[in-house]
Request: fold
Amino acid sequence: MDKIYIFGHQNPDTDAVCAAISLSYLKNKQGLNTEARVLGHISKETKFVLNYFNQKEPQYLNDVKLQLKDLEYHKGLFIDENESIINTYNYLIKESVTGTPIIYNNNKYKGIVTIQNIAKELIKGDFNKLDASYNNIVSAINGKEVLKFDDLIIGKILTASYRSTTFINSVDLQENNILIVGDRYSIIEEAIDKKIKLLIITGNGQICDEHIQKAKENKVNIITTSYDTFYTSKLIGLSNSVRTIMNQDESKIFHENDYYDYFKEATKKLKHNNYPILNSKNECLGLLRVTDILKKNKKQVMLVDHQEIDQSVDGLEEAEILEIVDHHKIGNINTSMPINFRNMIVGSSNTIIYTMYKEGNIKIPKEIAGIMLSGILSDTLCLQSPTTTPLDKNVVEELSKIAGVDYKDYAYKMFTAGTSLEGLTINKVIKSDFKTFPHDNKKFAVGQVFTLDKDRIFNELDNYLNELNEIKQKEGYMFIILLVTDIIKNGSYLLFTQDAKNILESAYNIDNIKQTHYIDGLVSRKKQILPLILEELN
Reply:
């Protein structure tokens, strides 16, 4: 069963990470093979939660783009470099392909051979050269082994077509010669005396015991065949090792982790049909033919705590979305098939997942209860956010009992651990909970920082404003707003790029708003910022 990835948004907060873990546990209990992942670095708060409840930090998921390993290609299709040309041709016919990768030394890739290479060899090849195994020669000419001293036969092919006397007087036989001859005893004797590499006797010709004994002494390889000399000389070239005609063009190879869109663009320029597929160890996995790409096994995913393309993983449009669990507004993610979609007006994605545990009659372990509780407390600011619903409060009470914690004491520990800005760069503070929203083919961003130490930010206010402007320019935002939320005071200070000034003044009815303006009770980006901004933009 293929693995299903479950993940939250690109800047994972505690609710998103805990929702991915808790939903993955639920789905696995229901018989699926899922794994929780994250799309970015997790916060100090989330690290505290995972350590507190002994949960492993989910691995990073870079993208879900379609890769070559996700395609149905000819896996296991390749042939050894020492196979003969004729055996390679027969293999291509059997597999109904026009090319095959060539391997050596435990599937290491060496080159590729196509029908075109074989045809070229038959028409323009060097018909006097032989580089073949003894066994392949026997197979190609339907021969019979008489004497064998060498596994590999390399040399120059000669055919005894003259009268015996003329041949002996005019042809200077060498030790690297391969001689094709009928039952012409004087030529056979001459060839054995000259210690040639291989003697092929055609037409079921006989060889006397005296010649065999001398051939043993001189270590002359001998094969007999029922074919005549002409036909044997035609076939013997097909016994050559396929490595002698292979193409070693490195531009034709791809790796299993290469992206499909990169492959498509590259093959438009290469204009071939057959492409060997390798792994990271340069081992050949098989052959991908452009004309055979029919089935694509898209990566399967489930989304939690988001449903906006800009907030999700790279390559989402190439994946298959199976389910979405979220408590935000309906986003812009489209699917080609119906999916399971859970969207509720609650303060946390984990509240929804809790109801799914109850519906499935799945027992919630203490550790899972703890991280689900953490997600709800984080997103509702310990049930103080205006997004909090009666259901959130009831679920917190139930999960607290299972987890064995006093939720108020635990929330204070969690927020204290999570709001420390120690060791963070300005960019990391801004991006710690930073969400992008589309509007009329443009985009804006709203970040939120929860802290008990706002002065650490205000003491570097100019640097923070410069960083906001740099992010805006570099990443192409219309404007950026940053909420610095004081959990104890239950309100937020506003930092913003100048493009957002008029929008904020109109949305909150403020005259000439200044940086760090405080709005009491403003703690929810989803309910108290985003709707007002969208209304102003519209």
About this structure: The first strand starts at residue 4 and ends at 7. The domain at 69-123+244-292 is CATH 3.10.580.10 (CBS-domain). The CA atoms of residues 323 and 439 lie 25 Å apart.
